[in-house]
């Protein structure tokens, strides 16, 4: 089975027309993966802001989520690693058939071992990639309970959209942090591939002990990572041509 990795769609971040255009682009990609039985891995921040209240799910990307649910039921449960913009899931994504992780996900393909995470940091101290204090606070259960106690769903989502906009604008300035961390992990483990998103910079870094690849921000250039025949590469999704277009390594 081939594998496709995407990150940082940030659906909901833009005006209505742009959001709709972006949603249609990724829906076409999911349909392509369904038709070709490609296993899908979402490395976080599918949404620019997402917070479930008890009994209340954001009305954001419903057509996209319907398409993904169909994929999950008919092909394979898509991996969904929750990012720092869509971490506040109360079980809805699991109900839709995703394999959900709030930290990292490991799997093997063709005897290659993969380590997947979002990139903002890991809660397990053994991996020595601590989340910034701000991210640790807003991911904590006590913050979520206080936030939802003070703000009803509509106001809470409106406030989260503002926070997300500020956070997204600060992203993308430190690619070397994830490059070096991935190199160290590959050197000290038996993983062959490390993948993450978060910093919005598409690139492939090949080290003697393995490969780190970041598919970049889908909302910017429609880039994803594609694994087939023991090889992983950066590609671009062309919805107009309905195909994946190879890119030069970055």
TrEMBL record:
UniProt keyword annotation of Manganese present: yes
Matches recorded under PANTHER family: UDP-2,3-DIACYLGLUCOSAMINE HYDROLASE (PTHR34990:SF1), UDP-2,3-DIACYLGLUCOSAMINE HYDROLASE-RELATED (PTHR34990)
Annotated GO biological process: lipid A biosynthetic process
Domain Calcineurin-like phosphoesterase positions: 4-201
Species this protein is from: Rhodohalobacter mucosus
GO CC, alphabetical: membrane
Protein name per its UniProtKB record: Calcineurin-like phosphoesterase domain-containing protein
Gene3D superfamilies: 3.60.21.10
GO molecular function annotation: metal ion binding; UDP-2,3-diacylglucosamine hydrolase activity
Keywords: Cell inner membrane, Cell membrane, Hydrolase, Manganese, Membrane, Metal-binding
A Pfam family that the UniProt record links to this protein: Metallophos
């Amino acid at each position: 089975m081939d594998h496709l990795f995407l990150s940082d769609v940030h659906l909901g971040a833009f005006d209505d027309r742009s959001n709709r255009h972006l949603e249609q682009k990724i829906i076409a990609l999911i349909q392509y993966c369904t038709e070709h039985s490609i296993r899908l891995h979402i490395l976080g921040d599918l949404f620019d802001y997402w917070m479930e209240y008890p009994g209340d799910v954001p009305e954001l990307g419903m057509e996209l989520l319907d398409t993904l649910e169909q994929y999950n039921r008919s092909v394979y449960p898509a991996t969904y690693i929750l990012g720092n913009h869509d971490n506040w899931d109360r079980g809805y994504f699991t109900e839709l058939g995703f394999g959900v992780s709030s930290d990292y996900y490991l799997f093997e393909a063709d005897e290659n071992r993969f380590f997947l995470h979002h990139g903002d940091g890991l809660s397990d101290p053994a991996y020595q990639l601590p989340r910034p204090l701000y991210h640790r606070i807003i991911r904590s259960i006590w913050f979520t309970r206080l936030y939802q106690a003070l703000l009803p769903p509509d106001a809470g989502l409106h406030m989260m959209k503002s926070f997300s906009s500020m956070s997204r604008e600060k992203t993308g300035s430190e690619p070397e942090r994830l490059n070096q961390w991935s190199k160290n992990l590959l050197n000290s483990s038996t993983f062959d591939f490390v993948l993450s998103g978060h910093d919005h910079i598409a690139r492939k870094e090949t080290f003697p002990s393995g490969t780190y690849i970041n598919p970049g921000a889908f909302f910017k250039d429609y880039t994803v990572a594609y694994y087939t025949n023991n090889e992983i590469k950066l590609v671009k999704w062309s919805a107009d041509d309905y195909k994946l277009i190879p890119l030069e390594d970055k």
